[in-house]
Design goal:
six-stranded parallel beta sheet, alpha/beta, Rossmann fold, 381 residues, single chain, 2 domains, globular
Length: 381
């Protein structure tokens, strides 16, 4: 594993439900120092409650500077930046402002890790020895962003970055056209975290819910097909559908369905107490350009927990064909659910658990470490 390096990571806010970037950087923290720079937003705020609350949190976090020490080898800061990237003058001002905020905190000759296209203007400004773009989504397809602006910023980032790491084959295929140093790093999993013994049994919120339970955890966002979930719930009133996660989309179609339970966001540490109660897990994603490129983190987590899975078809899910059920339409989704609930597929679940155990975050970080070390040696030459 790479060691004695300093990382600056420009990504989402630390401490939220852990993303792949957080899982990966944690693997480096034993032997390297990480300065985590909380999210430089990808979209301009609207006068909505959620956006206003986030702006307030940003201001509170900024006022708590200097940097917070969260754990050994990790420091987190929350800089201020104006999220109006369409205006060239604002981008220039942000670059100067952010550089000044980071100047006294940045380590000497860091490895710069960028997980958001909107951080492109800091590449080359940190006196970094190496710049890495970690691409975990097709960001221009994310809800609420300006797709033209994000594509333009990402294209610039792809030209600037020394290395590009992508979480799916589809992303590798599209990004490699602009940067030949593009590598596939699929998501990993914290296998031990999702073992039944790692939790405290079934969470009390689920004990009164009728079984069988079909479960989902993750953001309930526009890419989640809530109409599909409503269809499933209406046609299988004997099943309970449990949704765990923060809501970012209209879920009115689910309201009034007595067998749908929306339990809200739960801490990552508590997820094993919920997933252990699932009789089946589901990935009911819409099929579009965003989900075509996504590698769903929850899939390996469901596998690690020993749960049979039904998913809509996406490119990365298809990579695991034979380890889960993949539906072709909503009626097929219903049939697949009936099948795995009625006849628990022991062999399929066992094989999926073995597969997830072989795809740990530690192994992914080792892959990245080899790529980083080789590139650093090449740059010295």
């Amino acid at each position: 594993m790479i060691s004695k390096e300093n990382f600056i990571c420009l990504a989402e806010d630390w401490g939220a439900h852990p993303t792949s970037t957080q899982h990966l950087l944690k693997q480096f923290m034993d032997k390297n120092a990480v300065l985590w720079v909380n999210s430089i937003s990808m979209r301009s705020p609207a006068l909505q409650t959620g956006d206003l609350k986030r702006l307030l949190r940003k201001l509170q976090s900024f006022c708590s500077q200097p940097q917070d020490q969260f754990q050994p080898n990790l420091k987190v800061i929350s800089p201020l930046a104006l999220p109006f990237y369409q205006v060239p003058a604002v981008r220039r001002m942000n670059r100067i402002f952010l550089r000044k905020q980071l100047k006294s905190r940045k380590p000497e000759k860091p490895i710069l890790w960028v997980s958001l296209p909107t951080a492109v203007d800091l590449v080359g400004e940190m006196d970094e020895k190496l710049s890495v773009y970690y691409c975990g989504d097709e960001f221009s397809e994310m809800p609420g962003v300006d797709p033209v602006m994000i594509r333009k910023m990402e294209a610039e980032l792809l030209r600037k970055a020394d290395l590009v790491l992508c979480s799916s084959e589809s992303l590798v295929s599209s990004k490699r056209r602009m940067n030949s140093e593009t590598y596939l790093i699929p998501h990993g999993v914290d296998f031990s975290h999702f073992q039944p013994e790692s939790g405290g049994g079934i969470n009390h919120e689920l004990r009164s819910i009728k079984t069988p339970i079909v479960g989902f955890f993750g953001h309930i966002a526009p890419w989640v097909d809530v109409e599909l979930i409503a269809f499933l719930a209406q046609n299988r009133p004997q099943y309970s559908f449990v949704l765990i996660g923060q809501v970012f989309t209209d879920t009115a179609v689910l309201h009034g369905l007595s067998n749908v339970f929306m339990l809200g966001q739960k801490p990552y540490a508590a997820l094993p107490e919920y997933v252990t109660a699932f009789d089946a897990a589901m990935i009911p994603f819409r099929v579009n350009e965003l989900t075509r490129n996504v590698n769903p983190l929850k899939l390996l987590e469901y596998f690690a927990a020993g749960k049979p899975v039904v998913s809509t078809p996406t490119d990365e899910v298809e990579r695991f064909a034979g380890l889960l059920r993949i539906s072709r339409d909503r009626d097929d989704f219903l049939r697949q659910l009936d099948d795995i609930i009625g006849f628990y597929p022991k062999e399929m679940v066992a094989a999926a658990r073995r597969r997830s155990k072989s795809e740990s975050w530690e192994q992914r970080a080792e892959q990245i470490s080899c790529i980083l070390e080789k590139k650093l040696k090449d740059k010295i030459k």
